[in-house]
Structure formats: structure tokens, C-alpha cells
């Protein structure tokens, strides 16, 4: 995908599809433990990431675009200080 093809809508669609990987990891451990004990494996249900996680990812995307604009494309004389609190 080229940079010119990336739109706001595509970014938001991608971020909205984000799934919580930690939930999957926990389920895999529970399923493995249940299998070892001979118990029934619990059903897996996906969980979306929190709004804060989505916002962090969007902030990182925005910060990287601004840095690229300043350093590679020379759009600005100097980069303003952007702090990302994670």
C-alpha cells in the first residue's frame, strides 16, 4: 500500500479491528491447563482492545508521520516537541 492510498477512514477501520492479544494468550493457557487436567476446554471469545490502546496507536501513527514530514520531506524547519505518554 502506498502512502497516498492511506486515508483517515482506512486508519480508523484498521484500528477498530484491533483485538486484545492478551485475552487470547490467557485463553490458550487456560485451554492447555484444562486439557492436561482432562477437563472441558472453555470457549474462546475475542475481545476488542480498550479505547486507550486505540488512542495510543493513533498517537504513534501521527507522531511518526509528523517526524517523517519534518526529517525526510523537509516540511518544517524544526520539529515541535511532541511527547507521547504511554
Question: What are the key terms here?
Answer:
86 residues, mainly alpha, 2 domains
Structural overview:
The chain has helices at 8-16, 21-37, 51-71. It is mainly α and 86 residues long. It folds into 2 domains: 1-49, no CATH class; 50-86. It is elongated. It starts with 7 loop residues before the first helix and ends in a 15-residue tail after the last helix. The mean pLDDT is 86.
Rg from Cα: 20 Å
* Count of structural domains: 2
Q: Sheet with the most strands?
A: none
**Individual helix count:** 3
In percent, how helical is the residue content? 40-55%
- Could you say which overall geometry the principal axes of the C-alpha atoms support? elongated
What class do helices, strands and sheet pairing give?
A: mainly alpha
User: Strand share of the residues?
Assistant: under 5%
Q: Spans with pLDDT under 50 lasting ≥5 residues?
A: none
Task: Average the pLDDT over all residues and give the rounded result.
Answer: 86
Number of beta strands: 0
Topology as H/E string?
HHH
Query: How far apart, in Å, are the first and last alpha carbons?
Result: 28 Å
What does the secondary structure layout of this molecule look like, with pairings?
Layout: H1 8-16, H2 21-37, H3 51-71
Quick rundown:
The chain has helices at 8-16, 21-37, 51-71. The protein is mainly α and 86 residues long.
